[in-house]
Amino acid sequence: MRGxxxxxxxxxAYAQAESAKWRLAFTLAKSPxxxxxxxxxxxxxxxxxxxxGSVAGGGYVAAEVLEGRSFSRGDAGVYSAPGDVPVxxxxxxxxxxxxLGATSVGEIxxxxxxxxxxxxxxxxxxxxxxxxxxxxxxxxSGFTATWLEVGHLIxxxxxxDTFEMSDxxxxxxxxxxxxxxxxxxxxxxxxxxxRAIGGGNRAxxxxxxxxxxxxxxxxxxxxxxxxxxxxxxxxxxxxxxxKCLLSRIKAGTIDVEYLEVGLGNGFASKEFVVxxxxxxxxxxxxxxVEVSISPP
Length: 296
Prior knowledge:
By secondary structure, the chain is an alpha/beta fold. It has one domain (74-290). Helix content is 18%, strand content 39%. The chain has helices spanning 2-30, 32-38, 43-51, 58-65; strands at 77-80, 95-99, 105-116, 130-135, 148-156, 159-160, 162-176, 179-180, 183-185, 188-189, 206-209, 212-213, 215-219, 227-240, 243-257, 260-261, 272-274, 278-286, 289-290. The chain starts with a helix and ends in a 6-residue tail after the last strand. Residues 53-66 have low confidence and may be disordered.
């Protein structure tokens, strides 16, 4: 009886193991794009491999990749926060734009991306001189100025030709461990209040990792309506071809850390700038050094 029992249990265990393998095989066959993204490839590389035929046939690619664009997948387009699906996109436009308004967002995370002319075949959008723009919108004819309100803004591990912070208010301002080919750090003491963004049953977080864009823009484009985010983390951005700009931001805490900024043209030209229009209550400005740095 024990021998028969063990024989049955062995067959059941074998069938379960095979069933799990087949389920995994069919999952990968149906969703090769998700599998490649989970393995760490950015959206462009994943799609390129699929269309090259190295992973799956075109039918599977069309079923998954063409089902719709999304922020979480790293697709370019205009996103009305906190929506994950773009409200506007074009195959000829490779800008990642996030518009914030009356709905507060818990967290926005963008990490491990390449921007501007830092990758082959890319150019900045027509008429643009910035690769990254984070902040509100200045007043103009018929438009009331807006601010981007952030509880905690984390800027770390950026590579920029030039970097500028202006028209910014932060209760705590941390500028630490940055290296640049010429720098001017001149914020001014003031009384910005401590700040965090609530909102009760507020919107979900927006997170994306990996991708290549000609420009990233996060702002508040609606007249007289400030954008609100509790935590915004922009990490490991490789940019080239234009300025990285933070402007018209009111924050509780801002961390600017481990940036490398430079055009390789000497220390007389200031590529890393924290302007006098940057106001703080408490500042920690530590170990920022001038070294020769050229564009990537």
